[in-house]
Amino acid sequence: MLESLLNPQSVAVVGASTNPTKLGYLILDNIIKYGYQGQIYPINPKAKEILDHTCYPSLTKVPGPVDMAVIVVPAKFVASVMRDCGEKGVGAAIVITAGFRETGAEGRQMEREVLEIAREHGIRIVGPNVLGVINTTNSLNASFAAGMPEKGRISFMSQSGALCTGILDWAAANSLGFANFVSLGNKADMDETDFLEIWHHDSGTDVVIAYLEGIADGPRFMKTAREFTKEKPLIVVKSGTTSAGSRAVSSHTGTLAGSDAAYDTAFKQSGVLRAHSVSELFAYSTAFAYQPLPKGRHVAIITNAGGPGIMATDACEKKGIHLATLAPETVSFLQENLPAAANCFNPIDVLGDAYADRYKLALKAALEDPNVDAAIFLLTPQAMTEIEETARAVVELSRDFDKPVLANFMGAKEVAAGNRILGEGQIPYYGFPEEAAAALARMAEYREWREQSSESLERFSIDQERAATALLTAQKAGRLRLNEMEARQVIAAYGLPLPKSQLALSVEHAVRLAKEIGYPLVMKIISPDILHKSDIGGVKVGIKNEKEVRVAYEEIINRAYRYMADADIWGVAVQEMVKVGKEIILGVTKDPTFGHMLMFGLGGIYVEVLKDVVFRIAPLSRAEAEEMVREIRSFPLLAGARGEKPSDLIAITDCILRISQMVTDFPQIVELDINPLFAYEEGEGTMAVDARIVIGE
Ligand code: ADP
Ligand code: MG
User: Among residues 356, 401, 347, 353, which one has the least CA distance to residue 376?
Assistant: First the structure.
């Protein structure tokens, strides 16, 4: 079936037209014009011949087999055409026609019907609502695009057909070629992950770029992308905000997990390079398509002017790319061969009066230097500058080395001819040094990802039974939010330490429990109506004796009723007062696309103000959990700032992993907040002081 899509021996255009302004004409014309070598069958009951090809009244009347059908008939006829496809044994259908899911309920129903028929006959569908599919390897342009890309090793998919045409035009101007070019449209059947699978095994595709508005199946995408990106780079622009779900967000984690956080982290965890704009997409595409990956993060900058050299240096440093320290031999070679005023240390400044030969000498010396992993080549058009000659030299030299070379010829008009030579010679060129630095940084990042070995998931031995019982109790009682005791059961079952705690139902009860647990104590209001207890004065710490227990109990209950007269109050927790540690928040929220998302951060009650949190999609490996801990801005506070001892980072990481295991074991958990988790000094572990858990319906 995929063979029918990628390498069909025959293509029918159903809805082919004699009218040159109609899509049915344009598509047929593209298929013929760009040199497709297989059989071409226009289908239209009202014509005998279109564009010198015999026209058939219906698919079923075509004499030979038909591998692919390109469908451009009105939406209401697509289902019956799909039935003909089934009868005819068509393997793949590209449904160009719009007017399906994107138009509302009726369109959605039609789309479903078309898909059902296709599934019944084992036909794969691209679309509906697409520009089409282009394959340069067999010269098949089954689209209504206004052109044909050059042959190349990038494959592209886009959820926006209009963007496809823009990219085609840009690519044409920048000598960027493609292997496959796919418009995904409504993704009724084939989606981004299907194409990733195809291109993973396609020897003609080295790089995949994608414009996506959403992802059909998050976990499947992540799994496929993880494998894909170990071999080939995948660059994605993701636009549009996801619906965070209609459920009211009541947890800290839910509030902090912006709609985009899930995509960011899912991409990061699966090695996908996210571009934040179409211009970034282009910047990265050429770099990845044209140049080898750098072996490290050390760059040489070659320039003919000081200022741009400094700007490029700053831009590199900002992105974690460092200036290579040139080997002594390189420096002395440059000193012998460049004018006295030149800078022979990195950035190498060949001076404004440099002709192409001086530039060439410097670039060659830099690329030969073992300390150099990559080169950024800067040029400003000055009176003596040989722009085209220099561009040719860069192209030739770069071919001799397995190190990436990225260029920035500053300017526009004067340097245009040079840029054209660079593009044709497969040197990525940029308008500004910052873009070159950013592209190089992504290449280095990607190389590091590829070399990272994938870790297997650990499992802690936990008491799954105990957690299951607590969750079931809440579910049976029709409560989505677990009560204090149930939440503690689940957390304890997964091995996180908790302070001793009991629920008091009266003052006398509180006094008795206080004696059992021992002073000092903490008392807190327990009510499903009160989310943030201290906000309403519902938490009292440092209770030292019976008298204080009595006062605290009355006060807490009174404050709760003052806050909400008809509050459902379950009681007051009498709790062991534990040693204060660094206040950590550990949370879970469920993303509609990717599933459970873990949050880690510092801040305790200030977490919403500081927003110093990071996210990962569960389940996590230990390396990912460790990386999470190190990623927050205030990590130095945990590592031990200002003479403090470091926190117990291993215990913190274990807590993250235990929670990751918990939500994987119990997917019904949709929200979890442990805030705070006290983290103690190295070797002293953690304490989960406050926890809430919400399950799905
Ligand atoms: P809420 O977040 O609903 O206001 P918490 O249970 O988190 O209520 O309590 C508020 C703060 O009180 C915590 O952030 C913590 O600093 C302190 N606290 C709560 N319980 C204890 C305890 N058992 N031992 C020590 N400090 C506690
Ligand atoms: Mg709290």
Answer: 347
Nearest CA, atom 19, ligand 1: 689
Average pLDDT over all residues of the chain:
93
* pTM assigned to the model: 0.91
Residue 438 CA to ligand 2 center (angstroms) comes to 40
641 alpha carbon – ligand 2 mean position (Å):
25
| CA 262 to each of CA 147, 267, 298, 446, 458: distance values in angstroms, whole numbers, following the listed order | 36, 8, 32, 20, 23
Q: Which amino acid is at 317?
A: E
Q: Which of 337, 315, 329, 529 is nearest to 439 (CA)?
A: 315
Residue 102 Cα distances to 73, 75, 113, 415, angstroms = 17, 12, 15, 45
In angstroms, rounded to a whole number, what is the distance separating the alpha carbons of residues 133 and 72?
13
551-576 confidence digits (pLDDT tens): 999 999 999 999 999 999 999 999 99
Tokens 């699978």 belong to which residue? Answer: 197
Task: Tell me how far the alpha carbon of residue 535 lies from the centroid of ligand 2, in angstroms.
Answer: 10
Element (H, E) at 677: strand 669-679
Tell me the pLDDT tens digit for each residue of 376-435. 999 999 988 999 999 999 999 999 999 999 999 999 899 999 999 999 999 999 999 999
Q: In ligand 1, which atom is closest to the CA atom of 577?
A: 24
The enclosing H or E element of 5 equals helix 2-6
**Left (φ > 0), alpha (ψ -120 to 50) or beta: where does 173 sit?**
alpha
Q: Output the six-digit token pair for 247.
A: 């459920």
**Which residues have CB under 6 Å of ligand 1?**
499, 522, 524, 532-534, 539, 541, 575-578, 604-605, 675-676, 689-690
β-pair type (582-591, 613-617): unpaired
CA dihedral 96→101→102→103, nearest 10 degrees, is 110
Tell me how far the alpha carbon of residue 577 lies from the centroid of ligand 1, in angstroms.
Answer: 9
Phi, psi of 55 (to 5 degrees): -100, 140
pLDDT digits (tens, 9 = 90+) for 91-104: 999 999 999 998 99
The residue whose CA has the least distance to atom 23 of ligand 1 is 577
